[in-house]
Amino acid sequence: MNTLEVFGAQLVMSLIVFSMLAKWSVSPWLSTKPLKIALMILIAPHALRHLGLTFLVPSVVEPSLPSSFALTAAYGDFISGLLAILALVALRRDWTSSTPIIWLFSIVGMLDLMNALSQAEAVPSLAGTWYIPTFWVPILLVTHVMIFLRLIKHQAR
Q1: pTM assigned to the model
Q2: Largest CB tally within 10 Å, which of 30, 80, 124, 141?
Q3: E strands along 18-107, which residues?
Q4: In-domain check, residue 15
Q5: Would the pLDDT of 156 be above 90?
């Protein structure tokens, strides 16, 4: 297997595993919780998206990592993480604007992930950051979908 094939296999396998866990265990359990608590649990991993700033650390990534990828992935993650923290605070304090803040966070966060994943040319240069898209991104994708589904279901009521 070449580098892109290994990357793709790891990304897809992680996405499958986290999707199964979400469907079989996490989602049924969250269904027993109030919406506010369920959303806080799903948003919490995104508050750690400052980890994406690692793409800017020269000793961790290959020098050949395209700066266009490093900058957009790092700052997209950082902004998404800040929005996640804002969403958590909004939920905790019962702000009337919490739902629009959660929508904003989740749309921005999902677009950031899609943008980063669309830049396959960066994969061979990820070096020590390889775990972010192959392990962490699938968790973030699954939780974004779960957030969207809960928001849509709540608004339908």
Answers
A1: 0.95
A2: 80
A3: none
A4: no
A5: no
Assigned domain for 14 exists:
no
The count of structural domains within the chain is: 1
Rg, C-alpha atoms of the chain: 16
Residue 157: the pLDDT is: 79
Alpha-carbon distance 25 to 3, whole Å? 32
Q: Within 13 A of 140's CA, how many CA atoms are on the CB side?
A: 32
Separation CA 129–CA 3 (nearest Å): 14
Query: Would you say residue 81 lies in a domain?
Result: yes
- 97: three-class secondary structure by DSSP: coil
Assess if residue 73 is contained within a domain: yes
CB atoms under 10 Å from CB of 3, counted, come to 13
Which residues constitute the domain of residue 143?
A: 35-156
